[in-house]
Amino acid sequence: MESYVGLIGWMFFPSFITRVLQSTWYSFKYPVNSSAKPAPNTPKHRRHQNRIYCAVVLAYLAYTIVEVDRATPVNCYDLLDIGFHSFSQKKLRTNFKKASLMYHPDKVGQAGAETFVRIREAHDILSDPVAKQAYDRFGPNIIACTTCKTIKDHVSRGLASFFTFYLGSGFVLILMSVLGKAQFGRYWRFIVLFGMAALELAMATRSEPIWPLSWIMPHRVTFEQVAILHQIFISTFIAISQIGPILVPTKEQEKHNAKDLVNRLEFLTAHSSSESIGQLQSAFDVFRGDNESMLHLKNQMSMMALDAQLMQDQLLNEAKSAAQRRMDHR
Which stretches are transmembrane (predicted)? Predict the structure, then answer.
């Protein structure tokens, strides 16, 4: 359910916040009915909108990563106040004895009964070397395997979810590529997916944690690190799909923008011969507040004026030549 809520958030939250922030910023920066305020759908308005949208998406990406780390349930090590990397059987026995006395039902009543049961379950897992290794790599669900007797059995069972996640993710990426969706960075996404699969496979088959991840996430068990990496991959994939085309426009987008500007210039040219000043003013409104487009417009108008002058000179020369031929004919 939380995954669906997160996807819905990615679909609607960034766009909604972008509109609110841009409207609020314009209300403070520009006075009411100011002619300098960029009109909707103008290049400057879209440029501001894209910048705000990218900032919102990156902020939301950071929030989702922090949130998945914060929402991770308490593991067996934290329950017994034992560091994952400083674990020892001696410390386990000592801390288990303290926690049992603190939360024993005879002392705290039924209020601590649930915590007492969880403490005993955590002790049973961590005191068994095989169960501990399976728990470290695949989490509490792997302990429910009644047919797994050795660490090899647990690894074989745990890799089933590994293949499910990466085969499913690969199928989604292939399907989106075939449908023409999320084209930006699609090859890099496959490379990152294969890289993550190799990293997780190494994490699942090694008896010791991989030190770079342990340095980045020192308080997380291996299976928690994997869950956080999955969330980072999914959230980053969605974020890049949204802001990638904005930061690095494709050739098709650049052609579309150029065509849009040409259409604006043609619209302006068509209205420039009108006797109505209001129509001429409305033609210029599409460039209002955008210095870059105005500069481009001036250059285009200069070229149009030069072409008109050359055309006029050519017609004048042709008229002179025709008059001279008539005189010579006489």
Answer: 159-180, 187-207, 227-248
Q: Would you state the structure tokens that stand for residue 320, as one six-digit string?
A: 């002179």
With a CB cutoff of 8 Å and minimum separation 6, the contacts of 180 are: none
Dihedral sign, Cα of residue 305, residue 311, residue 314, residue 320: negative
Angle between helices 251-272 and 291-329 (to 10 degrees): 60
Inter-residue contact 264 to 300 (CB < 8 Å): no
Is residue 10 a contact partner of residue 60, using CB atoms and an 8 Å limit? yes
Tell me the CA distances in angstroms from 85 to 122, 214, 223, one per residue in order. Answer: 16, 9, 14
Count CA atoms within 13 Å of residue 184 on its CB side. Answer: 18
Taking the CA atoms of the chain, what radius of gyration do you get in angstroms? 33
The answer to whether 269 and 304 have CB atoms below 8 angstroms apart is yes
> Mind listing the pLDDT tens digit for each residue in 293-314?
666 656 666 666 656 565 555 6
Region 209-225 average pLDDT: 86
